[in-house]
TrEMBL record:
Lineage, opening ranks: Eukaryota, Metazoa, Chordata, Craniata, Vertebrata
EC supergroup of this enzyme: hydrolase
Entry membrane topology: Single-pass type I membrane protein
Stated name of the protein: Neural cell adhesion molecule L1-like protein
Location in the cell: Cell membrane; Secreted, Extracellular space, Extracellular matrix
Domain of life: Eukaryota
Residue stretches spanning the membrane: 1042-1063
Subunit and partners: May interact with L1CAM. May interact with ITGB1/ITGA1 heterodimer and ITGB1/ITGA2 heterodimer as well as with ANK3.
């Protein structure tokens, strides 16, 4: 408030531009003049040097408390045209505006006139004048016909800067009646046309050649004055025949680098001319008869610019006041002074004027005024007002009392203390000092790198000779806002979800004022919650589209500071479809295709796929024709004849393949002879005296025209004979009555109605094959070990093969085991060996056996005869694993074991190796004990002197002279009392007479189960229970006779039920029953279904199958899944060392199955 109570000189604050054009499409034209001051300034206007009162004209709209008035666009505006000057005055002085020129443009028109035709002889120069009317620049001139077709301009015909149309020499085609000059004034949206002109060119027999002359400019030298920043335009338009060429030179220098030539070299333009572009230029027009030269002197001038603009001042009474005003320009501007808008003519005792400086000596209050400095040259005028106040005034602080300032730790802060005084305030000796504190001339205190300790209350003092004033202010220093987790640049696939994260730290006092904002491309984001979501730290964009690409900025903002972090989100997508497909360079078998690639969406296009569709064979089916690199936008396409094509293109980038373009127009190629012959020719002989020739036919699009046929030519290769030819339409041909397997040369050539295809390639093939006629000789067998032999032979002669050698086959079969005297022809096994070879390894033979072997060769037709059989024997090997190994009885110190001999001893059985050791539930085990049983007929053994109630593990292996076979193991636990038979918590009784009805003692809450199992053709009954072994041995219910009798009765009933089940099965008649009590069963051929009554299995045995099979010595219990026998009649390849390289064949031996009938013994 204090500030506005002070008296102030007027100051112009707003005014209209120096030129105000009354465009006819504007509604009104404001003549602006605003000013401030105290007292409030009053306004007056001058027009063309005369007083002008806007309020006296009712058409003008005047604004209150303002010098502005508005000229409406109605009626005649010409009366308001002129130069205006605004004065703003109060009792202290007067300020003036710059001159404002109000221009009322008239509608430019060409004069109505009748123009005589321009008659000129051929070869002579002539000019068509335009003389455009004056109007508001810029002016644009066009030469056109009545039908608005541009007059073609070239080296011979050109338009000058003045709008005239120059012809360096006339030609017959220049004769026409509608040369029209059009003048366009874009600022007033007006185009006017001059009356059409007619030109008549008289032809001559010969055009005389002439040396060049200039049609414009005239004379030999032109002087150009330009204002800096304008465009320099120099033109030389010559006449002559032949048409002269124009050359431009800057004398002593090179042409400016920014210079450019237009109008076929006849116009030199130097845009935005600078002082260094001034100098001498020369144009030279020449033809073969001579040359003409014109010089241009270019001077670059400048409008006035302030070097030192006069400044407003507040000075105390009695001081010396200097008002300085300085300007530069070319020519040098003239400086004139005004006081309160009036010329400075009247002298004053204390005022002196020194060109650009006014000095007020010992200034008085009456010297207060508005001083105007005007700098002018021919290119413009500058006007500046300087308010000079001469007065004495105590300090008046304009800043409010008690302002609160907030700073950020580590950043600067400015605390204001604007004071107004005369004389100016004194510097206070109590001001803050230090490298971080600065008191500026306007009274403001600046603190650099504020610290938390700077928080507090500050006082500003303003003093001068007239008095003192002070205000207080408070400063609070806050923690800075920082982005701790900034969003990262991302590339995301279109349609996926993008997530940008941002975390910030800020001063906790702003917890209610802190904001975390997201901006996209510097604009605040408006969120559509179906597509994106925002939390305090994350921005998620669902179903990303191309419009989501951009720079995302996280803005953390508090009332005093802020922090930002940006990330670029790039949306990846397949390329857009190419556009603007154009076919060019149409030829018989090719066409050039050009296209404009689509947007690659941030993943560079790696290739373009060109597809074609034809209308005859597969209309609507697009096929790939060619792929070109992604940096190409055109390709020459090789085509077939007689095809109606159209094409399309699709781009491929790292994301995938983009959509195809729109198809091109159709292009049909003329029919031509075939470009190629059939491929993949196959010569086969399915029968001995025939040769089948097959080939891959040409695709329909490869026919190149109608009437496609194939010429098949063949001849024997080993004889000198002529080609035999046949023309067929199919893609196969059979040559009959050929010798067996002789070489032929074959070639196939395509032709259509237009002619033959290229000369075909010759391929070689053979006529039909027949079975080989000879067997390999000198077959020998070398035994390498008990299961592998090496077979060698002499190769069959090529003449006997009668076809392509397929390889050799070895067939062998086992005659007998060497333990048997009787021979029998076993199953055949085959080893197929592809290729030409004379030896092979036969693996996986049965040791200690006699075999027979033959070798044969084979071709594409089949096998040849076999060689003479060769018999050989394999040496002994180790026996197979014993099929059965069981604990039959356990007592306090003994365990009884039983087993079956190996199904294949692979030699003469010499005995068994029995091992056992203590394995109680501890980490330590007992010493391994070994028993060598050298009687091969032994099948049971009893171990003595064992520890009571201890667990043992037993191992058994069968042996020959070669060694012992694989091991079979069993575990069992000795009992506590000699009267009990316990084995794996089972009481075992062998035979019905040994059923322990009387000797069984049950302890505690026990239960019993009784099961029957067929083993060694003996019925065994197991009675098992769950007991607490260490319970009291004596006393309790176990000593009661009635209980023991009950158990025996239950056991007897169970046995009777089991016997009834077996009898019932034997009556079924499905299986033959053979009683062999001395058989050794094949456990792997037996099984048990736990869900079936009357069938059972020991816990330690493998499950028994539902049907029982009789067993003989021929059954091999150790049949392996990878035995050669498992691959009967199949081919197997082996390397020479016996590794598997082929197909192995063999049949498994059939096993005779029969129902095992259990023999029972009477109860003891």
């Amino acid at each position: 408030e204090t500030h506005f109570q002070l008296e102030q000189l007027p100051t112009i604050t707003a005014q209209s531009p120096s030129s105000l054009i009354a465009f006819p499409f504007d509604e009104s034209y404001p003549m602006t003049c605003e000013a401030k001051g105290n007292p409030q300034p009053e306004f007056r206007w001058m027009k063309n040097g005369q007083e002008f009162d806007p309020s006296s004209d009712p058409r003008l709209m005047k604004e209150e408390d303002s010098g502005t008035f508005v000229i409406p666009n109605n009626g005649n505006l010409t009366e308001y045209q002129g130069t205006y000057l605004c004065y703003a005055s109060n009792k202290l002085g007067t300020a003036t505006s710059k001159e404002i020129e109000f221009i009322v443009p008239h509608v430019p028109k060409f004069p109505k006139e009748t123009l005589d035709p321009v008659v000129v002889e051929e070869g002579q120069p002539f000019t068509l004048k335009c003389d455009p009317p004056k109007g508001i620049p810029p002016l644009q001139i066009y030469w056109m016909t009545i039908n608005l077709q541009h007059i073609e301009q070239d080296e011979r015909v050109s338009m000058g800067l003045n709008g005239d149309l120059y012809f360096s020499h006339a030609v017959e085609k220049d004769s026409r009646r509608d040369y029209c000059c059009f003048a366009a004034f874009p600022r007033i949206r007006t185009i006017v046309q001059k009356t059409a002109m007619s030109v008549v060119v008289k032809t001559t027999n010969a055009i005389l050649q002439r040396r060049p002359l200039l049609m414009t400019p005239s004379g030999v030298r032109t002087v150009k004055h330009l204002v800096r920043g304008e465009d320099l335009k120099l033109e030389c338009i010559p006449e002559g025949f032949p048409t002269p060429q124009v050359e431009w030179i800057k004398i002593g220098h090179k042409l400016p680098t920014k210079a450019k030539l237009e109008s076929h070299g006849k116009l030199l333009i130097v845009p935005t001319i600078e002082q260094e572009d001034s100098g001498k230029y020369m144009c030279k027009a020449k033809n073969k008869l001579g040359e003409v030269i014109h010089y241009f002197t270019v001077t670059v001038e400048e409008p006035p610019e302030w070097l030192l603009e006069p400044e407003s001042q507040l000075s105390m009474i009695g001081s010396d006041v200097l008002i300085k005003c300085s300007a530069t320009g070319t020519p040098q501007p003239a400086i004139t002074w005004r006081v309160n808008g009036l010329p400075l003519h009247a002298p004053a005792a204390n005022r002196k004027v020194f060109d650009d400086t006014i000095v007020l000596h010992n200034a008085k209050a009456s010297d207060s005024a508005v001083y105007q400095c005007q700098a002018s040259n021919r290119h413009g005028t500058l006007l500046a007002n300087a308010n000079i106040m001469v007065m004495n005034l105590p300090p008046m602080i304009l800043t409010k009392e008690g302002e609160d300032y907030t700073a950020v730790d580590g950043r600067g802060v400015m605390m204001h203390c604007n004071a107004f005084s005369s004389p100016s305030k004194d510097e206070s000796s109590e001001s803050l000092v230090g490298p971080r504190f600065t008191v500026h001339g306007n009274g403001s205190l600046e603190i650099y790198r504020a610290e938390k300790e700077d928080t507090g209350q500050y006082t500003c003092y303003a003093k001068n000779t007239e008095g003192t004033s002070a205000i207080e202010a408070s400063l609070y220093v806050k923690d800075p806002t920082r982005i701790t987790v900034a969003p990262e640049d991302q590339q995301v696939l279109i349609g996926t979800t993008a997530q940008l994260s941002c975390l910030a730290q800020y001063d906790k006092s702003f917890i209610n004022d802190f904001r975390l904002l997201w901006q996209k491309d510097d604009a605040d984001m408006g969120f559509n919650y179906t597509e994106s979501s925002r939390s305090d730290s994350n921005l998620q964009i669902f179903n990303v589209s191309h419009g989501d690409q951009g720079v995302y900025k996280c803005v953390a903002r508090t009332p005093v500071d802020g922090a930002t972090a940006s990330a670029l989100l790039m949306v990846l997508d397949v390329p857009d479809a190419p556009e603007h497909l154009v076919l060019s360079e149409h030829k018989t078998k090719s066409v050039k295709l050009k296209w404009t690639p689509g947007d690659d969406h941030n993943s560079s296009t790696t290739e373009f796929i060109i597809q074609y569709e034809e209308s005859q064979w597969e209309p609507g089916n697009w096929k790939e024709l060619l792929r070109v690199p992604g940096n190409h936008a055109s390709s020459v396409l090789k085509l077939h004849g007689h095809v109606d094509y159209r094409f399309r293109v699709a781009g491929v980038n790292g994301v995938g393949r983009g959509p195809p373009s729109e198809p091109t127009e159709r292009y049909k190629t003329p029919p031509t002879a075939p470009d190629k012959n059939p491929e993949n020719i196959k010569i086969e002989g399915h029968l001995p005296h025939e040769m089948d020739i097959n080939w891959e036919p040409l695709l329909p699009i490869e026919h190149n025209g109608p009437g496609l046929e194939y010429k098949v030519s063949y001849r024997r290769q080993d004889l000198e004979e002529d080609w035999k030819e046949h023309v067929v339409k199919r893609h196969s041909f059979v040559v009959a009555n050929t010798p067996t397997f002789v070489p032929y040369e074959i070639k196939i050539q395509a032709r259509n109605n237009q002619g033959w295809g290229p000369e075909p390639n010759v391929v070689t093939g053979y006529s039909g094959e027949d079975f080989p006629s000879a067997a390999p000789d000198d077959v020998a067998v070398l035994v390498m070990n008990s299961s592998v032999v090496k077979v060698s032979w002499t190769r069959v002669n090529k003449d006997k093969l009668r076809g392509h050698l397929g390889g050799y086959r070895i067939n062998w079969w086992r005659l007998r085991s060497l333990l048997d005297l009787k021979k029998s022809h076993g199953d055949k096994h085959t080893l197929t060996l592809p290729g030409d070879r004379n030896h092979a390894i036969v693996p996986r033979l049965q040791p200690f056996s006699e075999y027979s072997l033959i070798v044969m060769t084979f071709n594409g037709r089949g096998n040849g005869p076999g060689s003479h059989p060769v018999n050989f024997k394999t040496p002994e090997g180790v026996p197979e694993k014993n099929p059965v190994f069981k604990v039959t009885e356990t007592q306090r110190h003994t365990v009884s074991l039983a087993w079956a001999p190996p199904a294949e001893p692979n030699g003469v059985l010499t005995g068994y190796l029995l091992e056992y050791q203590l394995i109680n539930n501890t980490e330590e085990v007992g010493q391994l004990q070994t028993i060598d049983i050298n009687k091969p007929g032994t099948t049971k053994w009893t171990l003595r002197d064992l520890e009571p109630l201890s667990k043992y593990k037993f191992h058994l292996r069968s042996c020959t002279t070669v060694g012992c076979g694989p091991v079979i193991s069993e575990e069992s636990t000795t009992t506590l009392e000699a009267s009990e038979s316990e084995g794996s918590d089972d009481a075992v009784a062998t035979g019905l007479n040994a059923l322990p009805c009387v000797g069984v003692t049950l302890r505690g809450n026990n239960h019993m189960r009784v099961m029957a199992q067929n083993w060694f053709s003996i019925i065994r009954v197991y009675v098992s229970w769950t007991a607490r072994r260490l319970a009291s041995i004596h006393g309790g219910i176990s000593n009661q006779g009635w209980f023991i009798g009950l158990l025996c009765a239950i056991a007897l009933l169970t046995l009777i039920v089991l016997i009834a089940c077996f009898v019932n099965r034997n009556k079924g008649g499905k299986y033959s029953v053979k009683e062999k009590e001395d058989l050794h069963p094949d456990v792997e051929s037996q099984g048990m279904n736990d869900d079936t009554f009357c069938e059972y299995s020991d816990n330690d045995e493998k499950p028994l199958k539902g049907s029982q099979r009789s067993l003989s010595k021929e059954i091999k219990a150790g049949d392996s899944g990878d035995s050669l026998v498992d691959y009967a009649e199949e081919d197997t390849h082996f390397n020479e060392d016996g590794s598997f390289i082929g197909e192995y064949a063999g049949r498994k031996e059939k096993r005779m199955s029969s129902e095992i009938k259990a023999t029972t013994q009477s109860l003891a």
